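User: Teach me something about this protein's shape.
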Amino acid sequence: MEVVNNKEGRPLEHYLGLYQAGEAAEMSARCGLTWDGEAFTIVFLGETYRAAHPGFAIEGPRELTDPERILFLRYLLDGQKAEPLGTFLTYRELPWGEVYLQQFTGRCIKRFAFSYGSCPEKLEKIMARLPARPCPQSDAGWDVELMPGLTIRFLLWLGDEEFPPNGQILFSDNFRYAFTAEDLANAGDIVLTRMKKLGAAL
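Assistant: First, the predicted structure itself:
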């Protein structure tokens, strides 16, 4: 999968142009998405959306942000559905992950650890509002389903008087077929932003 820089130029317009020129049937078969002749059905963070083709008008329970719309487009343009094999990968282990590791660590892992390292009860309430299930691999671990079959594992070790909180974010092994490493940095940021909004409403 080609690595792209989503921060340069006008990415939404660029990807939208490619999407409009693409064939809906090919996207449907490659991505494993239902296509009814007018729109794709996409389940994202437990919510169902319809994305029209070629216009890309999106209907769903909430208005998507531009980063979320770009993530949809990236999957439809270059992603491929694959079943998970049951293992989880660190960001470094993903293709091109080493290139963006520093960005991902600061933007996602540290943000996660320091946002919730002293308030696991709040994290539990937030995760109850997402398609998440507990994971026993840390002090407060959660598996969040980004899209069907694509699971992001958030692991949190709580801080104390001696050590600061620490975290790790892992991806189900089939993410390597669905997204590039830079896309996954954006995906992590999207999920954390959604978590922040849910936390603010508590």
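Now, about its shape. Residues 23 and 54 are 9 Å apart (CA to CA). Confidence is low (pLDDT under 50) at residues 1-9. If you'd like, I can walk through any region in more detail.
User: That's plenty for now, thanks!
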